[in-house]
Amino acid sequence: MSPDRNLNTDTADETADDTKSGQENSLFGLQDAQVKAVTALLHAGKDARKPLQGLLGEMSNADIAELVAKLHNEHREALFDRHSQDFDPNMYAEIETEILSDVIGLMPTEEAANIVDALDSDDALDLIIALEEEQQDEIIRQLSAKTRLELKEGMNFPEDSAGRLMQREFVAIPQFWTVGKTIDYLRAASDEIPDEFFDIFVITPTYHVAGEIPLSRLIKAKRSEKLDSLTLDDIHAIPADSDQEDVARIFRRENLSSAPVVDSSGRLIGVVTVDDIIHVIDEEAEEDFLKLGGIEEDDLYRAVLSTTSSRFRWLFLNLLTAIFASLIIALFETTIDKIVALAILMPIVASMGGNAGTQALTVAVRALATKELSRSNTLRIIWKETLVGFINGAVFAVLIGFAATLWFQDYMLGGVIAAAMIINLLVAGLFGAGIPVVLDRLGSDPAISSTVVLTTATDVIGFFAFLGLASLFLV
């Protein structure tokens, strides 16, 4: 072995030791020092296998998944080449969707199939859906008949539906059983029931849900008690084609830990659990947040050209709206030539209108997403946001009017910008709350469409009001 190789290994060992000591002070999450240590150990080659194995063994599945995302492609390939067999199959359920296809491509098809077989049905479906069609077919062919059938059925459900979200491992008990018989069954069938579950579903002979029993209620009951006497009053059966946002809303409103999923005939086919809902809420919030910025989906780990292409469309649309606003300014070219101060103050009016409108728009988009905004209260909410815009406009009109008067020693100029500020902030409140509602009624996604329309409206009206008033009273 060469001296350089020894030096690399020693350095990697020291880095790993530093990482371990630093890890003790960390509350949670992957640390940059750990990424650095793993990279150093990968550089050291196969001689650093054991130190790297030890370091990976101290990480959670979520930490390893984050590590995989943060590594360069060459390091990621080296990691899976040497240690893919050391990873828990559940780790693959945590990997970013954008790189999952590349990761699965680093291993033989048979190994990938074994991972899918080992996962819960909902995680297995998520993994398969994230892959390229060719990868899907190769892996599905290697699976057991039961898993293959479950995956194909799951893929037939609409995207973002309860059928895609549910897992098929659940506990269903006949309604005529007693508590004692149920507990005995759960102990005897420990290999056949889910590792973790919150509720037991009581079913009829035709597999319809007759009731739900929280596990805590079952454990507290006497062995001789009938299951019928323990079931909750409400059954929160969710149709398999329900949108996942609606499912999340039911969980939040009813404080559920799990809920049964039923097919079109009302038969029990799966269960949605609260950990799935946490992912849904996070995913939907992230999606809306990205759309407000004109980004259709998270592209942090996507290829450069793909990311460029997806963002280009909205930037191009923004360019067209900016040109439209510039044409409004061009109408008052003579006025601006005569009063240079207008060019200095003009951006203030447009900027304040844009920010005020974005505040109202954000509230409206969120309210639409959570169903808090509906036909019954739409006018009231729009009126409220318009009034807020007017009041804020009046307050800022006094401030900017006074400042402009002192700055340029022209009280008429101060009055013009004050009036324009009131007009633009009033319009910003009206449009900020109204545009998402109109777009939603037209069937367009307000989260991704509203920002461009609002920015155009506040810029155009702000420039037109300010320069138009200046033309009337100052020239």
List the helices and strands and how they pair.
Blueprint: H1 3-24, H2 32-44, H3 49-57, H4 61-70, H5 73-83, H6 97-104, H7 109-118, H8 121-130, H9 133-141, H10 145-156, H11 162-165, E1 172-174, H12 179-188, E2 199-203, E3 209-214, H13 215-220, E4 238-239, H14 244-254, E5 258-262, E6 268-273, H15 274-292, H16 304-330, H17 333-338, H18 341-369, H19 378-408, H20 411-441, H21 446-473
List keywords for this structure.
3-stranded mixed sheet; disordered N terminus; mainly alpha; 475 residues; globular; MgtE N-terminal fold; CBS-domain; 3 domains; 6% strand; 21 helices; Tetracycline Repressor, domain 2
For the largest sheet, list the strands in their spatial order. Answer: 1-2-3
Whole-number tally of structural domains? 3
Give the ordered list of helices and strands: HHHHHHHHHHHEHEEHEHEEHHHHHHH
Strand-pairing-aware structural class:
mainly alpha
Note poorly predicted spans.
Answer: 1-12, 18-25
CATH uppermost class of the largest domain: Mainly Alpha
CATH topology of the largest domain: Tetracycline Repressor, domain 2
Q: How does this structure look, described?
A:
The protein has 475 residues and is mainly α. The chain has 3 domains: 3-160, MgtE N-terminal domain-like (MgtE N-terminal fold); 172-274, Roll (CBS-domain), CATH 3.10.580.10; 304-473, Tetracycline Repressor, domain 2, CATH 1.10.357. Helix content is 67%, strand content 6%. The chain is built from 21 helices and 6 strands. Strands 1-2-3 form a 3-stranded mixed β-sheet. Strands 4-5-6 form a 3-stranded mixed β-sheet. The longest helix is centred in the last third of the chain and has 31 residues, at 378-408. It is globular.
